[in-house]
Every structure is written in structure tokens, then in C-alpha cells.
Prior knowledge:
The protein is mainly β and 296 residues long. It is 0% helix and 50% strand. The strands form 7 sheets. It has a 4-stranded antiparallel beta sheet, with no helix packed on it. Strand 2 and strand 3 (25-30) form a beta hairpin. The protein is globular and about 45 Å long.
Amino acid sequence: MTGACIVTLASGLDAPYGIAVDATSVYWTNEGGGGTLMKVALTGGRSTTLVTGQSSYPTGIAVDSTSAYWLNEGGAVMKAPLGGGQPTTLAAEPTDHGGVAVDATSVYWTNPSDGTVMKVAIGGGGLATLASGQGGAYAIAIDATSAYWGANDDILKSALAGGTPTTLVSQKDGPDASPNLATALSIAADGTSVYWTNPRAGTVMKVAVGGGTPVTLASQQPGLFGTGLAVDRTSVYWTNLDEGTVKKVAVRGGIVLTLASGQHAPDGIAVDATSVYWTNAGITMGDGSIVKLTPR
């Protein structure tokens, strides 16, 4: 990519997967090394460990203005201050490599093993079930009104307040239909459309938030088995763990551009107004890194 600058913000990491950014820092979880939550400034420098001893393999991460939220595979939804400090258990619930998202009031997550989509207030309290019977519900995305996820080969949504889920796309009948597919390992939403990856079909897809005909934004993308997908006003970005690449395509479709290649198992991805950030989970422990590309 002409004019692009790729910078390694942190290296020597043990299997970083989830990643999130705010106005000052990049945050991520390490599944190895006893399980840690870490951050580094957007401009680079020394990494800071915010939480240690998350031996239940922390996965996924979301941040708001004060806290980071993540899932412990052993069965907890966690919260910790962005500046570091004692973590709080918001929910002692099974999570099993689900996805997590946060808004001004609540934390939302999926549990692929028991097929639920859940939420809890950011300050803790009673749990609410948005949906059950959602086999294979891994990733989750939210906008101002709804939560979105993939399950049972479908793309679904529910109001943030709860209610009967709506099926937006049945991939059993769609252009990239594939039976027994754990759909949407990655999903994102921008208030207008929902975007997801179909790893079996090797496609990046979108559909309007109100439903309709799904659109294929990118095809012939084998190996979309990571969890990385992000969207901004103009483009959709994803990681290809098997290929070792980071790519993008315009939200309206078009030519797929490779932003980076030769990456060590790229997985989580995030964007801000200037840059793209991703985790390299690494081939072996200690081989992981946090990478930034700017400009886009």
C-alpha cells in the first residue's frame, strides 16, 4: 500500500487475540502467560500490564471511556479500569470464546457452548437473556438500537432491550450457503449495515440492518477463521489468520486491497480515524505482537 507505514507497537506477546482502541491507547488480551490485559499508547512506547492472573484464558475485549471488558473462557464476564486496578466480575457465566461489546449502559456477550446472547449493566447486577438456542453464536456487534450475531447458519438481531430475535439472513438459502457452518466468527455493524465473514465460503458479506438481500463484498478469501472484522465510514477491514494478511474493501464493494502480508497469525482488528490496528497471535508463545498501519 503506497505511503503506508507499518509499526510494531508491542512484541514478545503470548497469543494476543482481542483488541480495542480509544483516543489514547490500544488494549488487548493475552491468552497465554497466565492470562493478561495490556495496553500501549497509540504512538508506541512501553506496554503496561493492567490485569494479570486471568488464567481462564481471556478472549475478546471492548472498552468505554473508563473501563475494559473481556470474557474469561472458564466462565466470567470481567471489567477493569483503563488505568489498571482490581478487576470486577460482572457475571459468573460460561463464555467459551464468545464475543463481547459495550455501550453506555450495558455489556453484551455470546456463549457458543450454550447458545445464549446475554447482557448485564456496566455496573453489574441482574443478567438479561437477549436470545437462547443460538448454536454457534460467536461474535457480537451492536449499534444504537440492536445487537447482531451469527448462529445456526443465520445472521440475527435483537433489540438491545430484548425481545424476539429477527433473522436478517438465512445463509442456508443465501448465495454463500454452506450447511453446518459456524457462521460469523467475525461481525461488525455501523448503524446502516451488518457485516460478517463466512469462513467456509471464503466471503465477506453485508446486509441492511432491516434485512433484505445479502451482498458479497469480497469472495475467494479462504481461511477466514480468525475473529477480526472492523468497519468505518468508508471501508470494511479483516484479518486472514491462515494467509497472514490484513485486507480491506469499500463498504459499497469493489477491489479488495491487501494492507499487510507476512503477518504471524493476524486475528483481532480495530480501526480509528487514522489507523488500522491488529493482533498477531503468533506461531509460538512469545511470538505475538500488536501492529499499527497508518495512513489507510
